[in-house]
Amino acid sequence: MQNLDLYAKIESLIGFDEEYEKLYNIYLNILSDYKINSILDFGCGHGGFLEKSKDIYKTLGIDLSFEMIKRAKSKKLNAKRVDIQELDERFDAIVAIGDVINYIKPHELKNILSQIERILNDDGLFLFDLNTLFGFEEVTAGSLVIDKDDEFLSIDAEFDYDVLESEITYFKKQKNGCYTKEKETIFQYYYEIQDILKVSNLKLLDTKAISMFGDREDKEIFILQKH
After folding, report:
1. 12: Cβ–Cβ under 8 A, 6 or more apart, which residues?
2. Does one domain contain both 181 and 201?
3. DSSP-based three-state secondary structure for 123
4. Bridge partner list, 225
5. Which residues contact 149 (CB under 8 A, 6 or more apart)?
């Protein structure tokens, strides 16, 4: 998995809160059709989904970003920075919301999916979304520049050979008037559902195509089950 601490710092600048609220609600609507008591939010970020689900289910969120977990804990959410391989608990459902699976490198995919299967209860569900090809080519690829108060952000994203490479440059003004600079390159990978199924024993139950950033479908949610 990648270090997304810089992304955690710039997330509020990018500002897709409304779109992610919509996505969280879609997940909750899907989950309500199943008998579920416990949920693991894999790649929970700052805990947006945990906030909406904590009064409905027993929840735990995990993420590898120190910054993301710090923000989640500041909201008194049940979240911790831990690798999924270290978890011994079992869950009725696991969710990976907002491109989490797209951030996993191809050679790590099989192991991550096997860990998800390991900690799912029998008949447990794994819900996740993937960016569509349109989502990569027409929504996420391109350049973004934000100049706001004491912060400056530049993102240049190029999609080629099924890989989205995003170069992030972030400047923040300090109390002494000087600016700090942080730079990171983040990769996302285009997967089709067949890529997931061929390296996993989980069975596909259903799919749901959605549009987060326009009228055309840019994400697809998949529901898998452990048998």
Report:
1. none
2. no
3. strand
4. 125, 203
5. none
Which of 2-16, 74-88, 160-174 is the least confident region?
Answer: 2-16
47 and 141 part of one domain: no
**16: containing domain:** 5-133+191-225
How many beta carbons lie within 10 A of that of residue 220, not counting itself?
A: 17
Helix axes 5-14, 66-74, angle to 10 degrees: 60
pLDDT band at residue 42 under the 50/70/90 scheme: very high
Kindly state whether residues 59 and 116 are assigned to the same domain. yes
**Model confidence pTM above 0.85:** yes
211 and 125 part of one domain:
yes
In this predicted structure, what is the pLDDT of residue 188? 97
Q: Which CATH number do you get for residue 169?
A: 2.20.25.110
C-alpha separations of 67 from 3, 123, 189, 219 in Å: 10, 33, 23, 26
